[in-house]
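REQUEST
  id: r-88c1
  op: predict_structure
  target: fumarylacetoacetase
  payload:
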Amino acid sequence: MTALDFTHDPHRRSWVTSAGPDSEFPLQNLPFGVVAGAVGEPRGVVRVGDMVLELSGLAASGLLDDEAQTAAEVAADASLNALFALGSGPRTALRRALHALLVEGTPHQQAVAALLTPLHDVDVLLPARIGDYTDFYVGIHHARNIGALFRPDNPLLPNYKWVPIGYHGRASSVRVSGTPIVRPHGQLKAPDAPAPVLAPTRRLDFELELGVWIGPPNRLGTPVRIDDAESHIAGYCLLNDWSARDVQAWEYQPLGPFLAKSFGTTVSPWVITPEALAPFRIPFERPDDDPAPLSYLDSPRHRAGGGLDIALEVQLSTVRMRADGDAPNPITRSSSRHMYWTVAQLVTHHTSNGCNLQPGDLLGSGTLSGPGAGSEGSLLELSGGGTEPIALPNGETRMFLEDGDEIRLRARAQRPGAATIGFGECVSVIDSAITYP
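RESPONSE
  id: r-88c1
  status: 200
  body:
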């Protein structure tokens, strides 16, 4: 796990004025991304405040040495896969070099300022080519809430506390924040109907998740040990795994999620590095009466700092709210503290059968609900399975998403003695279903 160093010092400031202590992207964050402008090919950048630093120009500037130079050269590409593959050493070297160039008092301010572009002048793109996408189910409060709707006497299935549950999702339909989601068609069957019908989903839902970008690969047939798992993580993002609940209810047995999930997944564009999140590591703990993880998922080092403390929020904005100039309304707040399985355990378990993960693969945490009212990570939970509408400040109500609704996921890591690290937004608007041919 990443050690703290001078790049985490909360008292240091950047000369980039928009990267102040109130910014989600201060000097202590420095996430990677890919952007495109009105002309030119997509290229890799680092975000600082409301600016992006062009890595191709930085690599050509002569201001970098050794590992930092190598990392900048590969990160300047149209995707970050090659940077992910390098691992933490070159990435950390580039972070330290960037910090030295962007901190107040640097003698290179003028040269670096010429490499900055305002964020509003570029389009943010998907940061990597995604080979595979796996969605997990690590939010135990979500699992209990959903289980209680269908199995009130036994909400958690017997395997939940023993094995990190996941399924293979559809990588081709993962899109960057800002891409609309088209309401999907699917087979729907009412309980009293003699047969299903093909129709647009009536129970469209969001899921509040963390996304994990995989870095260096493991070889096919070679599992990753729990104490090595962190070295295979390139960064984090927000992830919304959209769900058609009525389609899912009819199709999921016996093989699990399929078309109810594969129509769209939205991710935030900025890759928040493990180094930026180092101050927000927390111990991995289990209730005393829960079973201890099997030995391959456990170690003293992992127990000491395997968890993450990131505050999460979901905001909803309707067509009417935007027309009236109303701000998006927070409908739920939760935290990554509620992950029953850590990211390291997900990587370890995913590879325990010899499965090979590759740079740019994406993992979803699963819905991260909290233990109390107002912390549910989906509308299915917030509305009691579609029986209790949630009220919005303007008098509108929702049980599931309507056309034109906009969902925003937000996240911040903060604690006393550390600079606040933000993730930006993971946002999408629901478009009407297409007319089926």
